């Protein structure tokens, strides 16, 4: 633990990666807690790590951080292509450290997903005091049970499924809903269950088109419509992920998308039915956060502030057993939390007969799952 003795801290806050409902709530939690507990001066780094590279920041007042709890987006902007270790082919990390020193910062709070926190971990090696706050709608960060933004995204996708259901029922169609979820299928799984999907396809388990077709055929026979939810990173067992475009100057060059339309074409060979595909895209990211995400993001931000105030740096705030805690940034960096086979929500979906397009995740009546004694 680092001991801080100066009367007034100078703490910067940064939001990196994609926008996410709850970012402003987290900024507010960090800033107001530090302002009120240790009279800290809060510096907002503009547009993520790009603000460090281009030397852009501004002081945030208490008033700046008021009235932003319900707002989507981020007060200080973000950027998902400004990796200071590889920005347009050059290493700007020393420039980041120089600007950190010039600002006279005692600490930096970074609010972001796996890419942002991984960059933060590398910057700690240069001597920067960093505390990470986990955010991502994908809910795929290691060491934490949940990230803020996930609840809002699931709510948005669930509402979309509810709306598409009425069209499917009315026209006797198979409705395919493509969600975000590049590497992990948390959104598809949770929204699929909440929306009553018959089939959920996730990146963790490549699907067999014949099993998906059979599930749709069975559902069409009994209810005349079917709902299929598929994560953008899902892929057929004999194929690859669906790449929409490649951006060479991005930390993640491959931009996924289009698997819903691809699945539609695959199913049309097997089924004599009307099939429609809808891609929700960035609709899942935007808008006002749910009440859960407002509270959760505020809690995470405030907890991060207490770590800064007590001199506990190079840590990431996490939730374990419904309690907030912290782990070393190294434990979170460069890792992805996939849906494990023993996940209780996944188990529920299997037990209810939801199709995942693979025999590995199929319910067998002869096998009792978690039967009580």
UniProtKB/TrEMBL annotation:
CC cofactor: Mg(2+)
Q: Where does Mg(2+) bind?
A: 114
Q: Which residues bind substrate?
A: 136-138, 173, 180-182, 232, 276, 282-285
> For site (Important for substrate specificity), what residue positions does UniProt give?
115
Its UniProt entry gives the catalysed reaction(s) as: beta-D-fructose 6-phosphate + ATP = beta-D-fructose 1,6-bisphosphate + ADP + H(+)
HAMAP family (alphabetical) = Phosphofructokinase_III
Q: What is this protein called?
A: ATP-dependent 6-phosphofructokinase
* Native source organism of the sequence: Paraglaciecola polaris LMG 21857
